[in-house]
Amino acid sequence: MKTKTSGLSGIGLRHSKGFTLVELMIVVAIVAILTTIAYPNYRDYVIRGQLVAATTALASLRANMERYYQDNRTYITSAAFPSPCAAAPYPAGGFTITCPATALTTFTLQAQGTAGALNGFVFTVDEADVQKTVVTSPPAPTTFLSCTTAWVTKTGGC
User: Fold this and answer.
1) Are 72 and 85 in contact (CB under 8 A)?
2) What's the pLDDT at 9?
3) What pLDDT is recorded for position 14?
4) Dihedral sign, Cα of residue 45, residue 48, residue 52, residue 54
5) 144: number of CA atoms within 13 Å, CB side?
6) Which end of the chain has fewer surrounding CB within 10 Å, N or C?
7) Angle at the Cα of 71 (from 68 to 74), degrees rounded to 5?
8) Residue 12 pLDDT
9) Domains and CATH numbers, the chain
C-alpha cells in the first residue's frame, strides 16, 4: 500500500544552523537601547551611594566640633586639647574632609570630591548647621544640582 506524501517534501527546506544577520541586528539594537537608558541611572545610583560617605563624615565631624566647643569654649586647638580639625584632612570614601579657616567661635567644614565623577561635588556645613552643596559639571553629572540650603544626595535638587 502506498502512502500519500506532501507535495512539499524535498523542495528547498533547510535546517537552520544559526542566527540570521537581521536577528543579530535586532538583538544589538535592543541591547543598545537598554544600555542608553540603564547606564546613566546606574551611574547616578552609584554616585548617590558614595555621597552618603561625605555627608555622614561631615555630620560626625560637626558633632565632634560642637562637643569640643562645649568643653573648651572655642573651636580652635587650646593648650593640650587638640581640636577635631587639628588632624584634618580626613578621607571619607571618594571625598576629603577639611576645616578651612577655623576661628574661635565659628567653623566651616568642607567635603571635596576627589575620585572620578565625585570631583564636581563640594559639601559644606558650619557651626549654625547651615548645609550647602556646590555641584560643578563636568565631571559631576548634570542630574545633580547645587543647593544653598541642604546637602544634595539624590538627583533633582534640594
Assistant:
1) no
2) 57
3) 67
4) positive
5) 30
6) N
7) 65
8) 61
9) 21-135 (3.30.700)
pLDDT tens, 88-103?
899 998 999 999 867 8
Give the span between the Cα atoms of 131 and 83, in whole angstroms.
21
Q: Which three cell numbers stand for residue 107?
A: 567653623
The CA distances from residue 152 to 14, 52, 75, in Å, are 61, 10, 26
| Residue 129: HSE in the Cβ half-sphere, 13 Å Cα cutoff | 5
Q: Return the pLDDT at 68.
A: 93
Backbone angles phi, psi at 94, to 5 degrees: -95, 25
Which pLDDT tens digit goes with each residue over 6-38? 555 556 666 667 889 999 999 999 999 999 999
Cell 573651636 belongs to which residue? Answer: 75
CB atoms within 10 A of CB 132: 18
Only one residue has cell 565631571, namely 139
Residue 109 phi/psi, 5-degree rounding, is -100, 145
